[in-house]
Amino acid sequence: MANIEKNIDTSGIITLDYGNFKAVLIGAKDCKAPIATSIQGDQGCISIQTPANVLKSFKILHNDQREEEFDLQGDTHRMVYEFNEFVKMIENKDSDRANEMMEKSLIAMDIATKARIDAGVHFKADESYE
Predict the structure, then answer these.
(1) What are phi and psi of 45, to 5 degrees?
(2) Which of 30, 36, 33 is nearest to 9 (CA)?
(3) What tens digit of pLDDT does each residue of 83-96 get?
């Protein structure tokens, strides 16, 4: 469900159904609301108060009111760990790991592309995709 302005999605909601797992994603390029992520389960949730691509810290909020806080990066730049993994893959010629990570990227982009097309936003390059 996308809000469309000038033939592009500016905000919207995606619902995904994987049988016993459901996901609802809300995004807005046209709003300056605080960005937060909540991953909810039957024992509590993971609360992230930053954009997911900046994930520096998070809290686990248990249903019994316990909270656990994790700070994974401190003052380290958010991409250091990712770049270190790239270096390891290159140095170890680990093409299996590289292919596994690329496959995950392709799956994410496939979902995003299908959602965009489903919302009625089509690009010329989509002709070969559809």
Answers:
(1) -150, 160
(2) 30
(3) 999 999 999 999 99
